[in-house]
UniProtKB/TrEMBL annotation:
The keyword Metal-binding applies. This is 2Fe-2S iron-sulfur cluster-binding protein. Keywords: 4Fe-4S, Iron, Iron-sulfur, Metal-binding. The keyword Iron-sulfur applies. Residues 11-89 form the 2Fe-2S ferredoxin-type domain. PROSITE patterns: 2FE2S_FER_2 (PS51085), 4FE4S_FER_1 (PS00198), 4FE4S_FER_2 (PS51379), 4FE4S_MOW_BIS_MGD (PS51669), MOLYBDOPTERIN_PROK_1 (PS00551). It holds the Pfam family Fer4_Nqo3. Residues 143-162, 188-216 form the 4Fe-4S ferredoxin-type domain. PANTHER family: HYDROGENASE SUBUNIT, PHOTOSYSTEM I IRON-SULFUR CENTER-RELATED.
Amino acid sequence: MTAVPLGIPRRLVEFTLDGQDARVPEGATILEACRAAGKDVPTLCEGDTLTPKNACRVCVVEVEGARTLAPACSRRAEPGMTVLTDTERTRHSRKVVLELLASSVDMSTTPKVAGWLKEYDAKPDRFGPDAARLNEEPRVDNDLYVRDYDKCILCYKCVDACGDQWQNTFAISVVGRGFDARIAVEHDGPLTDSACVYCGNCIEVCPTGALSFKSEFDMRAAGTWDEERQTETTTVCAYCGVGCNLTLHVQDNDIVKVTSPHDNPVTHGNLCIKGRFGYQHVQNRD
């Protein structure tokens, strides 16, 4: 039996979290500590396979002695620090951020947001209809996935996944400045004219449904999309010998989309075009 070498043990950081003693490995974020303690701190732009971008500011917490609220997704836990996650200040900040986001973009397909709006008594309608940042039709220019920028919160996760953090294709970027900033491919043209390789890793990390499988988009438009009726089965992709894991989302005995487990040591949630979109032959019943 071959011995498996052990890595250098990580030291534990001790600090106070909402009045309770907390211990997390050195380098862990406050958000990781909150999740370990079972605390539901909301977040949108954070991704477990990406470097934190601090874009949405929904996860802010109060650190004793700090002048400003700290984003829990990127702030590292430090020895002796005191963190408060549910103060009047943090709740007000989250409420305003949620109101601003929900008033400017369509968050109807963003998981958990409806519950957060209720929990923090957020009222996006108070800004009026003119607060909407965009008003354009979804871009359906290929048979694999749809870009609906009316749902985009500019979290930059798709840019990072397409760029130097995973795919290194660099087909996606931010264009414009200020209120005109938006996600786009080069020259803001059709996806088919861009450097996109259709790996779909941007869809995997998108938190709002701004990027979605065309199958999901069509089913939502037809009113047949129902996640409660869907089952998930994880298997191994058969296209090559890499061993990527696929999670098949099945509704009414049809595969409706494919994801990949983020904790898989081979793919970390990423796939190629064959693994992500090449499932039609499985259900070819002709």
